[in-house]
Amino acid sequence: MVNLTPNAVSMLYNNQTPDGFEPWLQIIDTKKIKPASGAGGDRYRIVLSDGTSYISGMLATQLAPMMENESLKTNYVLQLKDFLRNEVQGRRILIVLSIGDIVPAFDRIGSPINIEGAKGPSIPPAAAANVPSAAALGARPTTLAQTVYQQPQAHDPNVRISDIQSLNPYAGGRWTIKARVTTRAPIKNWSNARGSGKLFSVDLLDAKGGEIRATFFKDGVDKFYEMLRPGGVFYFSGGKVKMANRRFSSVDNDYEVTFDTHSEISPAPEDGQISQMQYFF
Known about the structure:
Elements: H1 8-13, E1 24-33, E2 43-49, E3 53-59, H2 64-68, E4 77-88, E5 91-103, E6 113-114, E7 176-184, E8 188-192, E9 195-205, E10 211-217, H3 219-224, E11 233-237, E12 240-243, E13 255-259, E14 264-267
Parallel strand pairs: 3-5, 3-6, 10-13
Antiparallel strand pairs: 1-2, 1-4, 2-3, 4-5, 7-9, 7-11, 8-9, 9-10, 11-14, 12-13
């Protein structure tokens, strides 16, 4: 039997993983999550344990077939090859991007506790490890506070609102979308031979259920990070659409968008037309 990697969950949670870190973890709970809007494919919540602690995560879209064909099951042990740490509704989760070897198992290893204490999901006991959590998929999501530094602005009625699904690199840059920030990743600093900088990303959802990831670099981080709180609704324009690297995104869209300091982003009124993205952790 493969040994689980000691202290792996704490290292993942606190973003203290060394280069090449590929821990062995056990799946102790899974749950299918249907998009609140009904658009897009099913997603899967996954809870991973190192035998001492556990952490919640989401499988990237391209890994969903592994759940559907039962390559992954509760109590199976896997090697985590690639991942991102993200913040969802004020909590830290993993986005699982790539999985290596998988070892079938039938018993839970150890008695892991939630790395986040009382904030995180309660996991069924080992004897009932396959029982999903009790949250109903149709439950109305908790409203998130929208903290912004500007009052919502009246939208120019002469400017057409585009659907996220209509965005592509060939449509030009003259578009405006109205979208809710469903997740916001922490600021990341980077450095290489060409220089250094920082970036962060947000996932956006519109009234038609379309989703897209938006990334901000350097001065755009300073300008927009504090404004774009999860749960807030905004008008976005002046971004550049490009092909997405699906290895690094759990968003169901072939494209992503980047914004800079010349982009226009302003708070929009909360009219209830855009659902809250909820993962039911």
